[in-house]
Target: Ubiquinol oxidase
Amino acid sequence: MAAVSMMFGVSASSHASFTPKGIGNSSALFTSKSSFRFSSPICFQPSFWPSRRFLSRELYRVKATVIQETEDQVVIEESSPPKSSPGSGGGSNGEPPDNTSSNGLEKWVIKLEQSVNIFLTDTVIKMLDTLYHDRNYARFFVLETIARVPYFAFMSVLHMYESFGWWRRADYLKVHFAESWNEMHHLLIMEELGGNAWWFDRFLAQHIAIFYYLMTVFMYALSPRMAYHFSECVENHAFETYDKFIKAQADELMKLPAPKVAVKYYTEGDLYLFDEFQTSRLPNTRRPKIDNLYDVFVNIRDDEAEHCKTMKACQTHGSIRSPHSYLDESSEDIPECDLSQADCEGIVDCLKKSVSDSQVIRG
Model:
């Protein structure tokens, strides 16, 4: 889901990386990392595939979030920056040639975007802490109502781009729809647990969602990187919130039955969409067990970790592929990204490049 990680609890440089270990007895460790650096539009290659040749173009250093999960541990950590490809024009680590003014402006813009996101997430966190400090299920209901919003906001803008003929990102649409489907089931679980019993909670959640949708559409149209970072903040907070709840209520949760909607979503029927939003995993590699309410919240927490990783990866422009798209290809013959679909970022950038292309054609 998304609760609001920076919207609800991320460090001032939006680079907090956490390593919550275990479920009942262990504690979550938060370690500050160095500031964000974003990469160029290269194909996102999940860790389960052998490395392949990089595109012959400048590569930017990227800090991606990778989720590693064992039977009793969920770890979110940074991956190493990509190495420079032979013949690339970048530096020793794939960085672009030094352009002080350009790089300085980009760093300033990134810092501004992250500062705005941090302010917004911290503001919402304080509000939710005040209203819901002792009402967990109601808080989760509000968070899950909000959590679906960015994904269909992203899809709205991507459909608009398709109408304008700027690019078509089928994989992005599939992944974001699967993310919204996952968050919807989190919401259904909270409703079955009684989180929506009060009129005030429903009123607040629905009106926040309307404002959040409009804000996300505007933000995503201007800067997808900023919108994805904001969603990462929300998902960070969601992960942290559920992790604390699980550790505090583990004994009680193990005594309670799992909601029927959770059993059906996680264990029955076609799990295609469940696999689709987990972009660093092969399909069919995560199949949760649901024996009680404790298992339900553990899996919701782990879902939020997957969302966080995907939102981090999306900040690398043009980087996401549907996990199922790899099943139709051999590991030795994975096609390169179609850069014609990923050559502009945000409506302002697209308009600028459209004007430039028109001038080139006239010339």
